[in-house]
Amino acid sequence: MPIAPASALPEVTASDQALRRFLHGLPGVDPVGLEARAASLGTRSIKTSAKAYAIDLAISMIDLTTLEGADTPGKVRSLAAKAVHPDPTDRTSPTTAAVCVYPDLVATAKEALNGADVKVASVATAFPAGRAALGVKLADTRDAVAAGADEIDMVIDRGAFLAGKYLKVYEEILAVKEAAGPARLKVIFETGELSTYDNIRRASWLGMLAGADFIKTSTGKVAVNATPANTLLMLEAVRDFRLQTGVQVGVKPAGGIRTTKDAIKFLVLVNETAGPDWLANRWFRFGASSLLNDLLMQRQKLATGRYSGPDYVTVD
């Protein structure tokens, strides 16, 4: 069901009052109904042939990530090699969608990928807390793009959002979008800190109205990250946004998705909620590096009839 007629969407030069009126006019979320719907879709079973397709699709949607204070150029080069050839023993495996690193390691990742069909994504805007002046956030973004980043993963100011300063958050996203230039912008809400499903719906629409190319659940740095329910809610948002505006926006659940079974549940959510147009890595990503090894082991099981074990995949 459409959220609102297109004429009711706030103008790009939204006033605080117009933005607040729109966001608080969105339908309230029924938590019980949302979680029941997500749980029911998670029970769907798929055939073996479809499972093989789903595994390769999931591999192609992974943003292979290292975001630690101890990251080194060597670790990034190793990650890039794994992104290009996830299973060194089987060159039929698809590449991952992207390698995601801090801005100071973007150039290293770009060089290591050496023209491979893998994007370089970079977290920016004072990731993961987002507690910095706008000028610092914009400089962070420009540095990453200048170093070769194809995608920018920014974090919103959750404190401003929770205080009801929607226009401030909107204008920051708009400014980062401009600073990112040709790079695609993923806007991270940190859903585990937004407290309610209503807030997640509002943040989704706020991000899309400000020009996000992707909306993303989490940084992976808090206790509650991606869940089927919050991802379902965001998939509903991008579906309704395209109905109203004609603009398609991607979704990226991040953090806590570790098994092939989990990944397939999320792919079912995508297909049944937003539709097959989102079943490509241009429109759906997994921010779940630990997921890749399980996908590779399940892929080997389908090919050989036996589990290879964790020693046959690289340790990140």
TrEMBL record:
* SUPFAM superfamilies in alphabetical order: Aldolase
Q: In which pathway does it act?
A: Carbohydrate degradation; 2-deoxy-D-ribose 1-phosphate degradation; D-glyceraldehyde 3-phosphate and acetaldehyde from 2-deoxy-alpha-D-ribose 1-phosphate: step 2/2
Write down the EC number.
4.1.2.4
Q: Is Cytoplasm included in the keywords of this UniProt record?
A: no
GO cellular component term of the entry, any: cytoplasm
Q: Which domain of life is it from?
A: Bacteria
Record's family? Belongs to the DeoC/FbaB aldolase family. DeoC type 2 subfamily.
Q: Per its record, how is this protein called by name?
A: Deoxyribose-phosphate aldolase
Parts forming coiled coils? none
Source organism: Streptomyces clavuligerus
A GO MF term: deoxyribose-phosphate aldolase activity
Gene that encodes it: deoC
Instruction: Return one Gene Ontology term, BP aspect.
Output: deoxyribonucleotide catabolic process
Q: Which reaction does it catalyse?
A: 2-deoxy-D-ribose 5-phosphate = D-glyceraldehyde 3-phosphate + acetaldehyde
Keywords for this entry?
Lyase, Schiff base
| Keyword Disulfide bond attributed | no
